[in-house]
Amino acid sequence: MYLFLILAMVVSWLIQWRLRSKFSEYAKIGLQSGLSGKQIAELMLADHGITDVRVISTEGRLTDHYNPADKTVNLSEAVYEERSAAAAAVAAHECGHAVQHATAYSMLQFRSAMVPALSAVSKFMPFILIAGVFMINTSMIPLGIGIALFALTTLFSFVTLPVEFDASKRALAWIDKRGIVTTTEHAMAKDALWWAAMTYVVAALSSLATLLYYVSIFMGGRSRD
């Protein structure tokens, strides 16, 4: 189990490195359409009849996200201004989440419904797990509660996967249909989004591995009873 956790950490680091490498590579290649990330995002929203979502710039690198609470597509400074395959991919992907929200995509609704509960438990869950491990010889209850709460975060990680893959699917279909990218640029955009998706896959598997680790501790404690 320890080996698997270490392997997951190494794989996660490698994928993050590869993702940054790909985005840096594709950011240097200008779009033939000449559109910036901001323009692409606004165009995709307009094409889907979405008029109540704003496209804004946010600080940082790879900090792009859609916020359903205030209905904003937040593009990192580079993506907001750039006119590249990488910027097109990211801008369209985040707008894909806005389209999911507007069309009441079921998995996004399920994921959003989990957020309040996760925000509440994430503050004290680590302390419960640690306390549960130390108290395992006297009581199994704290660790059992900690495992149940951690299982919720693991479920959230896996629910996130179809949401992310669907947003990328919508993004790639739209940029093709709208003629935003050429065939070569489409391949770069698809590759960039695939590596981004892999970060979520590894995160979900790492969460599952950690959950199983705590379950193994719990089962070991029960066997001593």
TrEMBL record:
State the Pfam families in the record.
Answer: Zn_peptidase_2
What residue ranges are annotated as transmembrane? 113-136, 143-163, 192-215
> Out of the domains of life, which is the source?
Bacteria
Enumerate the InterPro entries for this protein.
Answer: Zn_peptidase_2
Q: Which UniProt keywords apply?
A: Membrane, Transmembrane, Transmembrane helix
PANTHER family the record matches: MEMBRANE PROTEASE YUGP-RELATED
- Protein name as catalogued: Zinc metallopeptidase
Which species?
Hymenobacter qilianensis
